[in-house]
From TrEMBL:
Compositional bias ranges of the Polar residues kind: 1-11
Source domain of life: Bacteria
Region described as Disordered: 1-29
Protein name (record): Transferase
Length: 285
């Protein structure tokens, strides 16, 4: 059967604070991975220099800050652009408006136009995939979730049949070879690995992973990886990034299979992690 997904409210964590008087920003995403921010009333005067500041959660160095100039736009607001060519390391980035070197003010989300991210299929010619998704935190502030993967294995449709998880996906940034295989790695015991054969057609791949051996090892998560060139090549984490949903762990839920094991009764099934990586969860009933 084809695994189904159900929607639930998303959640977030961070150093957010409610600020009903904060300036707002409308965001438009483009298919290349760039973002445009249109900010209303950041404070200051028309002659004051203004910037949009992105600060990565738990920032520790200058690399955890990105400053983008805010310039007047045609509708009287201030606009900042984050092109796809500007690297934004993986993580969650809080958005602020800063005027003339003053104290940064947390931005609140306006309208997010993310239509270009739906069913996005980048060329992969740059050797990496860059994803930036603006979203509202649970405190009502604006943040950006960023991924930068090189190479990247995008998980697509998941099928569950006869105790096996069948994964369909596409590889970006490198090529699949005849030696390709997939593997499930027990997170708490990295030396414990189960492999699955990969069928490839160009950049598209499919593999079937039997969940029984994972369940028989007892409760705990298993991370899924693709080895496109076999043991001699890169190890690519499977993830689902190319859409407009920043947090899939609480949004997508899939059917589980109950099994009796030497560790007792368990449930086993796929899920997406906090970073939207694909994994298999085994938990006691």
């Amino acid at each position: 059967m084809t695994a189904s997904a159900t929607s639930q409210p998303a959640s977030d964590t961070g150093d957010d604070r409610q600020a009903s008087s904060a300036p707002r920003a409308d965001c438009v995403a483009d298919s290349a991975g760039g973002l445009t921010f249109d900010v209303t009333d950041p404070g200051g005067t028309e002659t004051d220099a203004a910037h949009l500041l992105l600060r990565r959660r738990d920032a520790e160095s200058a690399e955890d800050y990105v400053r983008l100039p805010l310039s007047p736009s045609a509708d009287g607001r201030l606009r900042a652009a984050l092109p796809s060519s500007v690297e934004l390391p993986e993580g969650r980035w809080n958005a602020y408006a800063q005027v003339a070197g003053g104290e940064p003010r947390r931005l609140m989300p306006g309208v997010n136009d993310l239509r270009s991210l739906v069913d996005r299929a980048p060329s992969g010619s740059r050797g990496h995939v860059a994803v930036r998704i603006p979203y509202a935190t649970k405190q009502g502030n604006l943040s950006v979730r960023s991924w930068l993967r090189a190479p990247h294995a995008e998980a697509g449709e998941l099928d569950l049949a006869d105790g096996a998880l069948n994964v369909h996906g596409r590889l970006y940034g490198t090529a699949l070879t005849d030696a390709a295989f997939a593997e499930a790695v027990r997170r708490e015991e990295p030396g414990l690995v189960h492999r699955a054969e990969v069928t490839a057609e160009g950049p598209d791949f499919t593999f079937g992973l039997h969940q029984g051996p994972l369940a028989d090892s007892g409760p705990g998560p298993w991370d899924l990886w693709l080895r496109p060139a076999g043991e001699s090549g890169p190890r690519v984490r499977l993830a689902r990034l190319l859409d407009d949903i920043p947090d899939k762990k609480t949004i997508f839920t899939y059917p589980v299979t109950r099994r009796e094991t030497p560790h007792g009764a368990v449930e086993v099934g796929p899920y997406y992690t906090y970073d939207n990586d694909l994994a298999v969860r085994v938990r006691a009933v």
